[in-house]
Hints:
The chain is α+β, with helices and mostly antiparallel strands. It has one domain (18-105): Nucleotidyltransferase, domain 5 (2-Layer Sandwich), CATH 3.30.420.100. It has 4 helices and 4 strands, in the order H-E-E-E-H-H-E-H. It has a 4-stranded mixed sheet with strand order 3-2-1-4, with helices on one face. Helix 3 runs parallel beside helix 4 (94-105). It is globular.
Amino acid sequence: MGKREKKKRKGTNLKPRLAIHRSNKHIYAQVVDDSCSKTIISCSTLEIEVKNKCEKTSTKEASKIVGEIIGTRLLAENIKEIIFDRGTKPYHGRIKELAEGARLVGVNF
């Protein structure tokens, strides 16, 4: 692991952190304010809203839908800038689609 992957990312109340977790079947996204250790918004492929829009939850399409939903929820809370935290996973595939879905709605990171 390089230094970039080991660096800790911290979010504030002005610019919270979007933490992504990917498993084989699902993808989870949550927006965290690290200054007070509080989750502001969360979304995953386990939600009924996502399951109704796609057949399988382990696809890029499902990840893009999760990104769009989390982006609209962020904009409803007047949060336009975030810090993207992908953990130790590489930025491609389902994680990239989630990020593009959030950018499509208008969230900057």
